[in-house]
Amino acid sequence: MIFVDACYCRKTERPPVWFMRQAGRYLPEFREIRKKTEFLELCRTPELVTEVTMQPIRRFDCDAAIIFSDILVPFTPMGLDLAYEKGEGPVIRNPIRTLADVEALRIPNFQTDLGYVGDALRQTRNALSPEKALIGFVGAPFTLACYAVSGRMGKSTEEMRQWMFANPEAFQLLMDKFTEMLAGYLVYQAESGADALQIFDTWGGSLSAYDFQAYFLERFQTLMRVTADLNVPRILFIKSAAHLRYFLPSIGAEVIGLDWTMPIGHSRRMLGPKTAVQGNLDPASLFADPEWIAERTRAMIEANSGQPGYIANLGHGIHKDTPIPGVAAFVETVKTYQF
Ligand code: CP3
User: Fold this and answer.
1) Inter-residue contact 104 to 168 (CB < 8 Å)
2) CB 23 near ligand 1, within 6 Å
3) For a pocket test of ligand 1, which of 36, 37, 67, 70 has the largest count of ligand atoms closer than 8 A to its C-beta?
4) Spatial distance between the Cα atoms of 339 and 334, rounded to a whole number of angstroms
5) CATH number at residue 71
6) What is the distance between the alpha carbons of residues 206 and 219, in angstroms, rounded to a whole number?
7) Over the stretch 158-201, which tens digit does the pLDDT of each residue have?
8) 202 lines ligand 1 (CB under 6 A)
9) Residue 55 Cβ contacting ligand 1 at under 6 Å
């Protein structure tokens, strides 16, 4: 698999390509299914998950598929009352406030509580051609906490950071519980057919380097240790993590995801030759003229200077209103590029 080869810094003829949120609302065939099915019901129906996971593969022939689900799906079996409200995004009706709230959270039994994720991974792996990789994923502990504590996420982590500093005991226990849950969930997804695993940390970059190191370095290292022998590459994507780059390699993920504010060449020099990188076209740039997108996509690849261990992607999830010709220009440019 060209995608897995690039994750392990093996030589490939061109960069592999996929993009975050590649299954979703910018696709008319996805919107058609969502008209009839609520978001969580869709996540819980393996046949439909396989269908929507395959949609961007059929349309663009990406090198990897990411299983359709959400980072918050494990909240329900943990005891958090999760819903997705129209125009609002995720809502937790019983957000975490006290130590007792954290103590009450349970660690799911993956086979029984989230068996539909394992079934969807197996079915999708069967539907995919052998040269394409299937990516399983989770959210990072801090990002999950942002939703669990705020209940309704705004545009900043201010509320979460205030709670974290005001409630150190509850915070540490919550992070321990999420880390334990995530370790089991990552292993479960690899054992159910995922060829690679990505950790999404949308909000971790809002922490100071000091707090990130103090609270999360060891926890990420634990997640890497637990998944080390599964023979699947691990991708760590922390948005807005420029200030964290120099110690990220010590976490041990095979691949670091870069957002568009982090230059590829400079980041590779900071991360060292053994760490592959993934990214990082600004998702907003897909609203431009397709020829201009093709030019920018080539410039993005050139910034990697032909080193092994590069995966083309966007710098964050694709926006729901993105014009499809822009997406096609991005993928096509990578697929016809030759190192
Ligand atoms: O990438 C893929 O194609 C796989 C599916 C996927 C979804 N969410 C589906 C989804 C993945 C990998 C995620 C990750 C996720 N979910 C993250 C981390 C990545 C990131 O974007 O920063 C976060 C923070 C969430 C939580 C979440 N889920 C939010 C904040 C929202 C609402 C915002 C929005 O885009 O509407 C969701 C809902 C969600 N998850 C949708 C999809 C396709 C839209 C729901 C719908 O179809 O109506």
Assistant:
1) no
2) yes
3) 70
4) 10
5) 3.20.20.210
6) 17
7) 999 999 999 999 999 999 999 999 999 999 999 999 999 999 99
8) yes
9) no
